[in-house]
Amino acid sequence: QVQLVESGGGSVQAGGSLRLSCAASGRTFRTYARGWFRQAPGKEREFVAAISSTGDTTYYADCAKGRFTISRDNAKKTVYLQMNSLKPEDTAVYYCARRSLSSGSLYANDYDYWGQGTQVTVSS
């Protein structure tokens, strides 16, 4: 069984930064693609960013391009999401997910394991 645990969420003013982390534990003897998604109240879960198993390829939603950076440290089994220039519309619960393939995906249904989520609140 694989567990994903997110951390690093919190409250920040518009223009600020946060760095989310997603640590994997359990049966993770191989590395796989990971993704970050978010869900705001009353809205559907949406794709934010993804990264391939090696970290060579990254994918970003339009809302994240130029402001967010996804990265990974396979030795630590951890994926990061650096979020800069945060806006109130970035307020959501952010989820980390793992896909049992090496390439990332923009679609939530392609991911097999999910974390519990971490709240990000951006005030104006």
Describe this structure in words.
The chain starts with a strand and ends with a strand. By secondary structure, it is mainly beta. The protein has strands spanning 2-7, 10-13, 18-26, 33-39, 46-51, 58-60, 68-73, 78-83, 92-99, 113-114, 118-123. The model has no long low-confidence stretch (mean pLDDT 95). It is built from no helices and 11 strands.
Defining traits:
mainly beta, 124 residues, seven-stranded mixed sheet
Layout of SSEs?
Blueprint: E1 2-7, E2 10-13, E3 18-26, E4 33-39, E5 46-51, E6 58-60, E7 68-73, E8 78-83, E9 92-99, E10 113-114, E11 118-123
Parallel strand pairs: 2-11
Antiparallel strand pairs: 1-3, 3-8, 4-5, 4-9, 5-6, 7-8, 9-10, 9-11
Please outline the major beta sheet: 7 strands, mixed
Number of helices: 0
- Work out the radius of gyration: 13 Å
Kindly state the percentage of residues in helix. under 10%
Mean pLDDT: 95
What best-fitting shape do the alpha-carbon axes yield?
A: globular
What portion of the residues fall into strands of 2 or more residues?
over 45%
C-alpha end-to-end distance:
40 Å
Low-pLDDT stretches are: none
Structure class: mainly beta
> What is the total tally of β strands?
11
Series of secondary-structure elements, N-terminal to C-terminal: EEEEEEEEEEE
